[in-house]
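anyone seen this seq b4? input:
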Amino acid sequence: MLEWQKTAKEHKKQYAQFLKRCDQRLVIRQLPQLHDETFAKIDCLQCGNCCKNHSPRFKIPDIKRIAKHLKMKEGHFIQTYLTLDEENDYVMQQQPCSFLGADNYCSIYEVRPGDCARYPYTDEDVLLKRPALTLANTEVCPAVFTIMEKLAMV
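predicted toks r here
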């Protein structure tokens, strides 16, 4: 476990309290700048934790777009790569993601699922509206950890 992950685990209670009590409108206004500052210092290709530990939801438009890109029939794409989770969403059958290379590059990056394109949701209200997801992401994504440290630990 890396030092930032250990700290995230130790600060999880403070993060949760912050997410419950914060002025959401004020935080939402701060997020784009915090997101930009954080990603100016963090290179996702040095990490890849999201692709190693999570699966995005694959919506029907994602499935159609990716299957076409891979020159596969949609049903074959689903059968080969996806499974239904407990919420009836299509997710990857395995972790790490089948499309993640050893260099942390995504082989379908240009057609990746919408969840992947939006992850880690640090520039939008999902950070506040889905606190359980945000709390989990503090231990997976160094960017979420950094932003929550700046917001909650002042």
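The mean pLDDT is 96. The beta strands are 82-84, 90-92. kinda curious what u guys think
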